[in-house]
Each structure stands twice: as C-alpha cells, then as structure tokens.
Specification:
This protein is 41% helix and 15% strand. The protein has 280 residues and is of the alpha/beta class. It has a single domain (3-199, 218-229), classed as TIM Barrel (Alpha-Beta Barrel). The chain has an 8-stranded parallel β-barrel with strand order 1-2-3-6-7-8-9-10, surrounded by 6 helices. Strands 4-5 form a two-stranded antiparallel ribbon. β9, α9 and β10 form a beta-alpha-beta unit. α9 (203-215) runs parallel beside α11 (233-246), α9 (203-215) packs across α12 and α11 (233-246) runs antiparallel to α12 (250-263). The longest helix is centred in the middle third of the chain and has 18 residues, at 119-136. The structure holds ribulose-5-phosphate (5RP). Ribulose-5-phosphate binds at residues 24, 26-27, 55, 143, 195-197, 222-226.
Length: 280
C-alpha cells in the first residue's frame, strides 16, 4: 500500500488500538436538519475532542468545522436524493475527488444500495470512486445503506452487501450491527465499522451494541444519533470510547457514563473554545 493511503488509514484507525470512534454527522444530505443536528457546529464542537474522525459533507465541513480543529474528516461524497422520495437508492457522486483532496479529507464515503432499484448504479459509482481514490491515495469507505427498509438489516443481507463492497475495492465498510454479526465481519476482508441507526431506547442498549460489535470483530463505530440525540452526548461518546479503545465492558461504560454525566457540564456553545482531540 502506498504511503498516502496507509497514512490516511492510520489517521482513521488509531494505530495504538487498531480501532476507531468515528462521529457521524452526515445525515442532513438526505434527511435535512435532523433532530439535534439542526446546527451542526453546535452539535459537533463539544464532541470533537473525543472523536477519532468526523463524518460530514463538504457543505457542513466548510460551514461548521473549523480548519484549526485537529480531527480527520471522512467526507461523504454520495447523494442526490432526499427522504421525500420512496426510493433512496437513486444516488450519484456529489463531490469530486479533486475537491476531497482540496478539502484535505482523510477518506471519502459513499452509500451502496444492494438489492435496491439502483443497485447497479451505486455499485458502479463505488467502483469509479475507488479507481479515483487509489489514484490519489484516498481511502474509500462504502456504506451498506438500506434506505427506509431497516428490516433488511440481517446477517445474510449485510454479509452480502459488505462482501460486495470489499470486492469492489472499498478500503473500509460501514454497516449495521445484527445478530450473527461475526459472520458479516468474517466474510468481509477489510475493516468494518458499525453505524448506530435510529436512537435506541436506553444508553445500556447503545453500550451493548457497541460492545457486541467490537467483540464480534468490528474495528469501531461510525455513530451519530445515539450520541448526539442523547441529552448527554459527551458522556455517551466517552463511554463508547472506553469500550472501543480500552475494552470496557457494558457495565464499566455505564459507570463512566453516569460519572461523566454527573460531573460534566455539557458544552453548549462553540464559543467555549477550539476543540482539540485529547489523545491519539
Ligand atoms: C447517514 C449515515 C450515517 O453516517 C450512519 O447511518 C451513521 O449514523 P447513525 O449512527 O445515526 O445511524 O450514513 O446516511
């Protein structure tokens, strides 16, 4: 692997642990001002110190992420449809590789919709993006999107979708956690991270999902709503960090969450300072 690609991947997946906590904030490109992501800067700023990577579109990157913030960017480059459509699979590439390089992205991400009406186009888009990414030393993450059909998220479907993504050249895959998740990871020869999906009922559910995903082979999470839709997002991400990077159990994560919730006054405003990642 060339230096550029290798270096970028090592900025995404922390070399000391081989794992990553990615903060997903790219929902607006088809969902609009998602609850608690209405003002992306306000949501993102307090979480940057605890994120290995932040996932955004170029619009949010320019408007809501300070260039001085020391955090690698996973740039979402697919889109072209919105939740007003029944079929969300009609996506193209919205941002060129040249633009991704100009924005100093560390990696780019694209959805694929296996089994959906526009399966072929999204898979060919992935292939083209990988061709360009390899040329520029830019890792491509494929996201196994299911659109509105959340019930599709079982191990047979996700194994198929992740494997197809890896075969077409994705350097990383983002998918969902499911029962039998280890089979999904075993069949996918590149690192897998999990999304959180819609907000779960309790923090315990979130920590269980993360712990199970890690135990079953995920290298980390690329998670959004279950962090920033929580009333205590910093406490949640700190607990997730402990599971991902330190092998904390669900119980330990809950202890950390409660401790941090009690102690920490959540930063509500970006005026509070320039976020710096605490460690790498
Ligand atoms: C939006 C995405 C999100 O990045 C992904 O779903 C992770 O976010 P969440 O944990 O909220 O599901 O791909 O299209």
């Amino acid at each position: 692997m060339d230096y550029g690609l290798k270096n970028r991947i090592s900025r995404m997946i922390r070399p000391s642990t081989g794992r990553s906590v990615m903060l997903a904030c790219d929902h607006g490109y088809f969902m609009g001002p998602t609850r608690r992501l209405e003002n992306p800067r306000t949501t993102i700023a307090p979480l940057v110190p605890y994120s290995d990577v932040v996932s955004v579109t170029r619009g949010v990157l320019r408007a809501s992420v300070d260039p001085e913030w020391d955090v690698p960017i996973l740039l979402r480059v697919s889109g072209g449809t919105s939740i007003l459509q029944d079929d969300l699979s009609n996506e193209g590439i919205t941002t060129s590789m040249k633009e991704a390089v100009r924005l100093n992205a560390t990696a780019v991400s694209i959805s694929i919709f296996v089994g959906a009406p526009n399966e072929k186009e999204t898979l060919l888009n992935l292939g083209r993006l990988v061709d360009e990414g390899e040329e520029y030393g830019m890792p491509v993450m494929a996201i196994t999107a299911v659109g509105k059909e959340l019930e599709k998220r079982d191990d047979r479907y996700l194994s198929l979708a992740c494997r197809v993504a890896a075969e077409l050249g994705a350097r990383m895959v983002k998918t969902y956690y499911c029962e039998g998740f280890s089979r999904v990871v075993d069949g996918c020869p590149v690192p897998v991270v999990v999304a959180g999906g819609p907000k779960l009922d309790t923090e315990a559910d979130v920590f269980r999902l993360v712990r199970s995903a890690i135990e079953e082979g995920a290298v980390g999470v690329d998670m959004g709503r279950n962090i920033w839709q929580n009333d205590h997002p910093v406490a949640v991400i700190k607990a997730i960090d402990a599971i991902v990077h330190e092998g904390a159990t669900e119980k330990e994560a809950m202890g950390l969450f409660l401790e941090s919730k009690a102690k920490t006054q959540e930063l509500a405003s970006p005026a509070a300072g320039r976020p710096q990642r605490s460690r790498r």
